[in-house]
Each structure stands twice: as structure tokens, then as C-alpha cells.
Amino acid sequence: MLAYKIFRDPEYQAFLRDGASAGAPVDLADGYIHLSTAAQVPGTLARHFSGETGLHLLAVDTQTLSPLRWEPSRGGALFPHLYRELRAADVVWSRTLPLTPDGHETGDLP
């Protein structure tokens, strides 16, 4: 199963440069990297990234991430949380998230 991380452009550029990231400021504050399932990505975008440009979506395979915990968050839904830095080798694919008049264009996420 794939899970997704959203980075702002400066965070993404640092990730590319360093080959790893401890995450965005919210991840650093909480002590883990916040990920979302495909079904959760639109809500995450709306809640935390509304109207922002320069976003990047990274897909990671949950079967290869450890330690990964599924923990309750918004409305009691289980969200994947990664308790280590995210590494370039973890990323299956990445792409930009264009902002359209209707919101961020995610396309079909597997």
C-alpha cells in the first residue's frame, strides 16, 4: 500500500539535496513524519495546505517503512506516522501538486 507525504518546495529541495528529511516543522514538533493514505490526501491538502503553491507529493510503500504506526487523528481515522527520517530510497515516485481554481490537482492516487 502506498502512503503519501506532502512537502513545500523548500522542504522538497532540502530533501533532494540531503537524500533524507526529518520532515516539515509540524513533523519535527510532533516527533514523527505525518503521512496520508490516498483517501486522506485531499483532506490533508485542504486542512494544512489550502491555497499554497509549490507543493510536492511523495509516494512511499508502507510495507517497507519501519517503524510505521497507524494512529488515530482527524475524526478518529488512522493515519500512518513514520518514526524515523524519510529517506530518498523510501520514495516510490514523486510529482508536483498543481493548484487549480478548484484546489490541488492530485489525479488518481493508487
Could you characterize the architecture of this molecule?
The protein is built from 3 helices and 10 strands, in the order E-H-E-H-E-H-E-E-E-E-E-E-E. The protein has helices spanning 9-18, 25-30, 41-48; strands at residues 2-8, 20-21, 33-34, 55-61, 68-72, 78-82, 86-87, 91-97, 99-100, 103-104. The protein has a 3-stranded antiparallel β-sheet with strand order 1-4-8. A 3-stranded antiparallel β-sheet has the order 3-6-5. It starts with a strand and ends in a 6-residue tail after the last strand. The relative contact order is 0.26.
Poorly predicted regions = none
Rg computed from alpha carbons, rounded to a whole number of angstroms: 13 Å
Shape: globular
Structural class: alpha+beta
Helical content stands at 10-25%
The N- to C-terminal Cα distance equals: 8 Å
For the biggest β-sheet, the strand order reads 1-4-8
Number of distinct helices: 3
Question: Can you count the beta strands?
Answer: 10
Major sheet, described briefly? Answer: 3 strands, antiparallel
H/E element order: EHEHEHEEEEEEE
Fraction in beta strands: 35-45%
- Mean pLDDT, to the nearest integer, reads 96
Name some characteristics of this structure.
single chain, 110 residues, alpha+beta, 3-stranded antiparallel sheet, 37% strand, globular
Describe the SSE topology.
Blueprint (H helix, E strand, L loop, with lengths): L1 E7 H10 L1 E2 L3 H6 L2 E2 L6 H8 L6 E7 L6 E5 L5 E5 L3 E2 L3 E7 L1 E2 L2 E2 L6
Antiparallel strand pairs: 1-4, 2-7, 3-6, 4-8, 5-6, 9-10
